[in-house]
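stuck on whats below:

***
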Amino acid sequence: MPSKLSAVSSDMPADALHPAAATPSLRPLRLVVMGTGPFAVPMLEALRTSPHEIVAVVTRPDRVAPGRRPPRNPMREAATAAAMPVLDPANINDATSIAAVRRLAPDLLVVCDYGQILSAEVLGLAPCGGINLHGSLLPRHRGAAPVQWAILEGDPVTGVSVIHMTPALDAGAVIVAFSTPIGPLETAAELEQRLATLGADAVLEAIDRLQAARSIGTLTAGESIGTPQDAARATRAPRFSKADGIIDWSQPASRIARMRRALEPWPRTATVYRRDGDTRRLVVEECDVLDITFLPDGDAKPPGTVLAADDSGIVVACGGGTALGIRRVVPEGKRSMSAAEFLRGNGIHPGAVLG
């Protein structure tokens, strides 16, 4: 079950920990919500049904390549369906955008999965500043892909953090942090969905704390609440590219298996094989780590060597004397299929080398 590791600054009065105890009635806040991707949608829905007023949703503009449809914008879709005003400035920090947000007279900016870093001037437009929902236990995994990196690095536990924003990337004081274990077979898509739901609750609690602090005078414009992050413990979680999904068979099988879970549904985890003189891409859709001591051939093989190929799957030698069992694949230009079905038409035998 998720646990709530609520973070507050050490100098905050005790009654600020319990907003209801601080004052019997708090004025609902005017919110400008900023987001683009699906991770922010549960937060938007939670805010929409809260006492607070969403005066506008700010999202990234659609960038349409010639001859192609615009990519999905889940926040735009959700806001439009709920008849919320939507702004999509190319640069949230330019003078025109700043003037547009100022006219909305927000009390607080609520940001998640937006895609632009807010300047100090933008953050100063709201008396309570801005809060950001991030999909990790900060300062670990600062950056655009915290969920994927948590799985790839083998973290047993991750979570969400709501920070009081500064212009630096993911560097603000942590107001609220909720934790949850990572399932042994959980993919990034599955974990992200759970964290998005957990994050919606975290944002509501963070807003309660900001309201309480403001009502008792411990939060004034330009100041923040929360626990400062230890920058020395920060790790980076940059966005992945398609090339990052190519398997390096010299890595241990356990890391390759985590990579398969972390890079689902994009860019996915793939290798290459040769057929009829051509090199073809093969997505590894399901796999597991094997105990190499049980393999029929106990001699060490170069990483990427196929050790066994039969109806149970494809066994591949990996770094450190480990082995990976591939159970399901997606051949280039083909549908998903079992490894056994793939083997019947592609002639991969023990001794072949992948990658």
